Amino acid sequence: MSGHSGSAETPIVKIRGLHFAHGSRVIFDGIDIDIPRGRVTAIMGPSGTGKTTLLKLIGGQLRPDAGTIEVDGIDVHRLSRRDLFRLRMRMGMLFQSGALLTDIDVFENVAYPLREHTDLPESMIRVLVLMKLEAVGLRGAHDLMPAELSGGMARRVALARAIALDPMMVMYDEPFTGQDPISMGVLAKLIRRLNDAVQITSVLVSHDVEETSAIADLIYVISGGKVVEQGTPDQLSISTSDQVRQFMRGLPDGPMRFHYEALPLVEELLGSGRKP
Amino acid sequence: MLDALARFGRHGMAALERFGRAHLLFLQIVAGITSLLPRPGLLVTQTYSVGVRTLVIVTVSGLFVGMVLALQGYYVLSQFAAEDSLGVMVAASLVRELGPVVTALLFAGRAGSALTAEIGLMKATEQLSGLEMMAVDPVRRILTPRFFAGLISMPVLAALFSAIGALGGYFVGVGLLGVDDGAFWSQMQAKIDWNEDVINGVIKSLVFGLVCTWIALFQGYDSVPTSEGVSRATTRTVVHSALAVLVLDFVLTAMMFGE
User: Using CB atoms within 10 A of its CB, is residue B11 exposed (0-12), middle (13-18) or buried (19+)?
Assistant: First the structure.
């Protein structure tokens, strides 16, 4: 199911002139991104810059206001619903919450896409599910319910489900958020290992600089609706851009504001006493 | 004044938009019936969840409603020495009105609110988005089986409500108040008309089942994916369903029994 139609040199995801706004708030203001095949590409940036929105746009869950997004040479937003679903069968997505179905156990969650999209016999489904769970180290947890899993385990089960159909690309939405250091390290190694072992493309959205830099081949830094910088982790670590330096080093002062736009504090404190 | 008018206009437009979205969702849900045919198990599971789990509240309520009807009816009928007609009065009230209406109100409170909360929480925890990204249509996979389960369950529940209610009426009327056993059942059998009473009652319960399940599913699917949003949606399901049932009951009664 992971058949790649393009050559190794052509990017698997090609974004051109992407504009997207939530009401009056502009999220993307004409960004261009190329995601190369077979690599781990990270999209980084401060909270609220639209990183998750970008994944939803790539997956066709949202429509851009302008611009195009091509996945494996196909314009995602020109597809019929049937063709979009066909494309999504070749894309896996790991949601921030895991998004496991809570009324079925771990085994059934991983088996779900196989049951929905294939006619494989039960014995084959069992083997495939156990292999996917083994890959994420949770074969022994196959009969647990999602409510019995820790956050890190739930994400690993979700990862096993995301790769159940052997997709050409997996998108990870903030996989490290809220994880303890051990889970974080395990997940990071798992993402890298899966990427290298089966030559899939990984698109990773995160604001966790250290873990992401350790596994990414290429990083795009987004801020203010634009791509601020792109390059390898080493290139970004010596970047002269103020925004990139502030983000990569976690500095409170810089072009990216910590405080939401507001009146000066003194003016507001001595003001009318009403809510602004 | 202008501000108030503008606000009114905005609310009106938002309500119309929701109304339109609800109808589009209804069409999508009904069109999804083709996906149910190869997987009848989905319908069976949901019929158990929506229908069987509502049985207790419906049967217990039916029993007590029938008992109260017999008590009240006996005191009125005995003033005209017409106690023997108690069976007809209880059965007609149940089959024509109370069966479909009270069952629908109980259904909205038990099954409808549960459906809204379930769908709303699935949305809030990204389970619906997860299905979309797995190339599975959440409307066909999640909403359609629940809709048809509601549609099947409501008439059956209403019939059970009426049947248990009639038994409750029998216990009180014949067992406690001394109405003649034979008169109770024979008058009921003679005066309750299959088409006029029973079929009309079934039609009402089908319509109520459709509307209550549709409202519950739409409210869940359209809810704001936060705890407050799901809570508001659940409340709206109960309120909107109750109002819709009572208004529709009047309309249907006027159409079925009006001169």
Answer: exposed
Look-up of token digits 């974080």: A184
Contact A59/B126, CB-based, under 8 Å? Answer: no
More confident residue, A246 or A16: A16
pLDDT at A24: 83
Which residues fall within 8 angstroms of residue A48, CB to CB, at 6 or more apart? none
**pLDDT given at position A274:** 60
pLDDT, tens digit (0-9, with 9 covering 90-100), for B24-73: 999 999 999 998 888 889 999 999 999 999 999 999 999 999 999 999 99
Does A61 sit within 8 Å of B129, measured CB to CB? yes
- Say if B24 is an interface residue toward chain A (CB within 8 Å): no
ipTM: 0.84
Closest CA to B219 of B235, B237, B207, B231: B237
Q: Give the span between the Cα atoms of A183 and A176, in whole angstroms.
A: 8
Name the residue among A91, A92, A95 with its Cβ closest to that of B129: A95
Domain boundaries, chain A: 8-85+206-276
Contacting residues of B for A161, CB less than 8 Å apart: 134
Question: What total of structural domains would you count in chain B?
Answer: 1
Contact A89 B135 (CB under 8 A): yes
Q: Does B126 touch chain A (CB under 8 A)?
A: yes
In sequence order, the β-bridge partners of residue A74 are: A71
DSSP letter at A260 equals: P
Yes or no, beta carbons of B127 and A100 under 8 Å apart: yes
Residue that has been written with the tokens 């602004």 in this structure? A276
pTM (two decimals): 0.86
Shortest CA distance from B127: residue in chain A:
A99
d(CA B183, CA B169): 13
CB contact (8 A) between residue A99 and residue B137: no
The highest-level CATH class for domain A8-85+206-276 is alpha beta
CA-based nearest residue in chain B for residue A164: B134
Length of chain B counted residue by residue = 259
Cα B244 to Cα B127: distance, rounded to the nearest angstrom: 30
- Judged by a CB distance cut-off of 8 A, whether residue B136 touches chain A is yes
pLDDT band (50, 70, 90) for residue B228: very high
Domain extent for B12: 2-257
Q: Considering CB atoms only, which of A93, A97, A116 is closest to B136? A: A116
